[in-house]
Amino acid sequence: MARRSQIWLLGLYFLLELPLILAIRSSQSLALLRARDQCGRELTAGQRLLLDRMQFEDAPHVRHYLHCFWSRLQLWQDDSGFQAQRIVQSFGGERRLNVEQALPAINGCNAKTRFRGSGSGMGSVVDWCFRAFVCVLATPVGEWYKRHMSDVINGNA
């Protein structure tokens, strides 16, 4: 009888704690999903599927989607690029990312890809965001991002 009570109490504990655990994880995940949905409104089902599979081809719809996504999250600024420190904080800080690796990777990609050519205006900013994002994807930070977004999309984060 005591064992049954212990199991019941343990089950009750997890039942009561589960909403708290989900609430901690869900605010950031919900923000990512909300930005994803808002920025993907005009995408076709096929385009959305490729983006969900982390396939970012060099195409206008991908460039505009990425700029919209990161801007909505307030992790991209048109005058300075990706906000490396805010990205690290938004994605769990030192608990989840190697900060010594992430900050230089993101900042380096911002600098390396900033406005090529003589173009100016929104198109250049959108292109810069795309190039910087693709650059970050080629780093360990990009691998972490792909795994994390897959977890968010699949309801595991």
From TrEMBL:
Gene3D superfamilies per UniProt: Pheromone/general odorant binding protein domain (1.10.238.20)
Protein name (Swiss-Prot/TrEMBL): Uncharacterized protein Obp8a
Pfam families on file: PBP_GOBP
Organism domain of life: Eukaryota
Signal peptide as annotated in the record: 1-23
InterPro entries referenced in this protein's UniProt entry, alphabetically: PBP/GOBP, PBP_GOBP_sf
Keyword Ribosomal protein tagged: no
Alphabetized GO MF terms: odorant binding
Keywords, alphabetical: Signal
The organism of origin for this protein: Drosophila suzukii
Higher taxonomy: Eukaryota, Metazoa, Ecdysozoa, Arthropoda, Hexapoda
Stored SUPFAM superfamilies: Insect pheromone/odorant-binding proteins
